[in-house]
Write a structure and sequence with these properties.
This protein starts with about 25 loop residues before the first helix and ends in a 16-residue tail after the last helix. The chain has five helices and two strands, in the order αββαααα. The model is unreliable at about 60-70 (pLDDT under 50). Helix 1 runs antiparallel to helix 2 (about 90-100), helix 2 (about 90-100) runs antiparallel to helix 5 and helix 3 runs antiparallel to helix 4 (about 125-155). The chain is mainly alpha-helical.
Length: about 200
């Protein structure tokens, strides 16, 4: 058995340096949620990377009529009849990027600022950017309202079930919206409150 170190403080106050390690249930729960959150962010990053790579490969192929199988398709074209380009990328890739930029919400203001910035910068020059921006903004506001409501409902424990559900729904909706946008389809997020008419 090792002797305990007892430093002396001027005066008559000797004490022993001992740290009590009693794991609390709250700390264990927050630690678990933190680890799950980090794993979710890593997964989201990998999925976004794969979607972007696949979109670039698809965009590099035949651009003659990429919208022929779409139910609603984008009509914005340049003078040569090819799909419009925004910031050097195909229009659909830009629209997909607008949807995927919501995943920056792991850095709180960026998840809301990035899609709004991408929308505001090109909404006047491209009608599809304007429409997709309104769709995204409707969902950002709606999901924010749902999150606040779930946070309030945590008082009666129901919110602890609703918060993870909203996070999963948000993840799924953003991925579906990005894929649809890359295919030239306008997809309104279900459960979205129409603050901006599309």
């Amino acid at each position: 058995m090792e002797p305990k170190f007892t430093p002396e403080i001027p005066g008559d106050f000797p004490f022993q340096l001992e740290v009590a390690h009693e794991p609390s249930m709250a700390f264990g729960l927050f630690g678990l949620l933190f680890v799950l959150g980090v794993l979710a962010l890593i997964t989201v990053g990998i999925v976004c990377l794969v979607v972007v790579i696949l979109a670039k490969k698809k965009g590099a192929g035949d651009m003659s009529d990429p919208y022929q199988n779409s139910t609603e398709y984008v009509n914005d074209q340049n003078q040569s009849g090819q799909p419009a380009m925004i910031w050097g990328m195909a229009q659909n890739s830009y629209l997909m990027l607008m949807h995927l930029s919501q995943f920056l919400s792991c850095i709180p203001p960026l998840g809301w600022v990035a899609p709004i910035l991408l929308w505001v910068l090109n909404k006047d020059t491209n009608s599809e950017v304007d429409i997709h921006g309104k769709i995204i903004l409707n969902w950002i506001i709606s999901s924010g309202i749902y999150m606040v409501g779930s946070g309030v409902l945590c008082i009666v424990l129901v919110g602890f079930l609703l918060l993870p559900a909203i996070i999963i729904i948000n993840f799924v909706f953003v991925i579906v919206g990005a894929i649809k946008a890359n295919d030239g389809i306008r997809w309104k997020y279900p459960l979205s409150i129409p603050f901006f008419k599309v």
